TrEMBL record:
Protein name: DUF484 family protein
UniProt keyword Transcription, yes or no: no
Ranges in a coiled coil: 41-68
Taxonomic source organism: Igneacidithiobacillus copahuensis
Keywords per UniProt: Coiled coil
Domain of life of the native organism: Bacteria
Pfam families assigned to the protein according to its UniProt record, in alphabetical order: DUF484 (PF04340)
Keyword Coiled coil part of the UniProt annotation: yes
InterPro entries, alphabetized: DUF484, GAF-like_dom_sf
Amino acid sequence: MQDEAAAQCRAYLQAHPEFLLQAPDLLQELTLPHLGVGSASSLLERQVQRLRDERDQLQHYVDTLLRQAQRQTELGRHLGRLAVELLLAQSPDACVTALRRSLEEDFAVESFVMLTGPQSCLPDTITLEESDWQRLADDREAQAGVQLEEGELRRYFPAAASLPASLASIRVRGADCSALILLASADPERYGADMATDLLEQISRLFSAALQRCAGSDRDA
């Protein structure tokens, strides 16, 4: 019966939230355990504290959304800068230089390497045997959470103080300029398998288009 009475009381107060305002004498008698250690506090204090908690949670949510929006704006600005530099590039070498600057300065990539097959027009790359190239550089989209053997990591990143803890890949598509760009980080969470790869795909499309344009100009010349 006690539980039933409590449920009825709760339901009535929910349906008539103004009831306690109309019965100030009853409000004075109601107490709840204090949020700290010790004495009691009024129902009003409890309600105020709850509102403060909800306000803090809402403010945290808003701050998170604002930070995400600012980050997206910043990434869009960096991507636009890269697009302009690639449009102005007149050779594959210039395209690679623009991409390298963008990855290092704008996107704060700790280290990266460009892998190519036996036939490639790209400078500053690691050339793979045909079998290794076919195994790594298939037609997949950009990926995060790439897994490689320790021996491969040591070969591709020989100057690193320690082996990369996470990897992502950008696929470069072109008739004469196919490549696979590996991005590496010492942070195991930076390129985790659950990371969105939309930005990597946009970089891939921009860089691939610029390389094909420059390679076509070289053939025409």
